[in-house]
Amino acid sequence: MNTLFAGAAALLASSVAVAAMPSTARAADACGRVTIAEMSWNSAATLAHIQKTILAEGFGCDAELVPGDTVPTITSMTEKGEPDLAPEIWPNAHQEVIGKAVDEGTVVIATHTLEDGGQEGWFVPSYMVEEHPELATIDGIRANPDLFPDPEEPGKGRFYSCPAGWQCQIVNENLIRAYGLDEAGFTVFDPGSGPGLAGAIAKAYERREPIFTYYYGPTAVLGRYDMVMVGGMDHDPETWDCVTSRDCQDPQPNTYPHSDILTLAATPFVERAPAAYAFVSSLSVPNAVINKVLAWQEESQATAEGAALHFLKTYPEVWTEWVPADVAEKVKAAL
């Protein structure tokens, strides 16, 4: 078994035991100072503020946000025991460093922060699938390049890929070859930037025009627009390394791996604040909800703190499941 997920299994078992503590024991728990890594991207920053608000208002913790990024944060948690929490860690590219920290007992995997994990793949708008159900699969896409006309190359279909410099640009180009979309008549379009790609999707959706594109979540784009991930594409770890290489000579059909999005906790925090940790280990947000929160944040030009407060006010049916009733009432009163 992968060491990372072996550690996760042991940790989640211990989480159940902590969560089963009587409310009187939880109330007696001394939370103290808690540091939470605030990553630079919107979903992670929002989740950090959600944790901070509930820990401060519900558990009386002295909760503090600190700047973070994946590898430096994990390294600091391992070597210094701080920060106490990292709310959104994407482990696919960091299996070794996370697995080592879990094996050494300095870090534990508290929960899968996003219920459905991270999303990454190829999408088409729902209105196109409603009209042409075959477009829900890669075989249907390949058979219908004319439904995605390239305005610059008449007779061709257009696929919107990642901007130059993103790893997914290489992956997409290899997958286009692997599925024979180049031979079927598709061109690969570089949108120039992340905002350019998001803007292309927004423009097409608001005008109900065709678009076949790469995208990822959780993001405001997937919260605002109903996009369907193209099916019929399975991840094969044995051929994935070639797909990610610019020098791949014979890419095989594949797709992006599932990403289990994790909250990591430093072991000293787990040991000193079991009631607070029980909450952290219960936190898991449906992707559809966090996408909608991010869409609201973008439309309102709100901060991450504002997005967190919007979530807490708008989705009590989600977060009150993470905490005892008395803690939920304290948070609601603070809001």
Brief rundown of the structure:
Keywords: Signal. The chain has 335 residues and is of the alpha/beta class.
Give keywords:
335 residues; 2 domains; D-Maltodextrin-Binding Protein, domain 2; 3-stranded antiparallel β-sheet; globular; alpha/beta
Task: Explain this structure.
Keywords: Signal. It holds the Pfam family OpuAC. One of its GO terms (cellular component) is ATP-binding cassette (ABC) transporter complex. Residues 33-313 form the ABC-type glycine betaine transport system substrate-binding domain. The protein is an alpha/beta fold. The protein has 2 domains: 3-19 and 30-115 and 259-334, D-Maltodextrin-Binding Protein, domain 2; 119-243, D-Maltodextrin-Binding Protein, domain 2, CATH 3.40.190. Helix content is 50%, strand content 15%. It contains 18 helices and 10 strands. It has helices spanning 3-19, 23-27, 42-59, 70-80, 95-104, 126-131, 138-142, 167-178, 181-184, 194-207, 220-224, 237-243, 267-272, 274-282, 287-300, 304-314, 316-319, 325-334; strands at 33-38, 62-67, 85-89, 107-112, 119-125, 157-160, 186-189, 213-217, 227-229, 262-266. The strands form 4 sheets. Strands 3-10-4 form a 3-stranded antiparallel beta sheet, with helices on both faces. A 3-stranded antiparallel beta sheet has the order 8-5-9. The longest helix has 18 residues, at 42-59. The radius of gyration is 22 Å and the shape is globular. The termini are far apart.
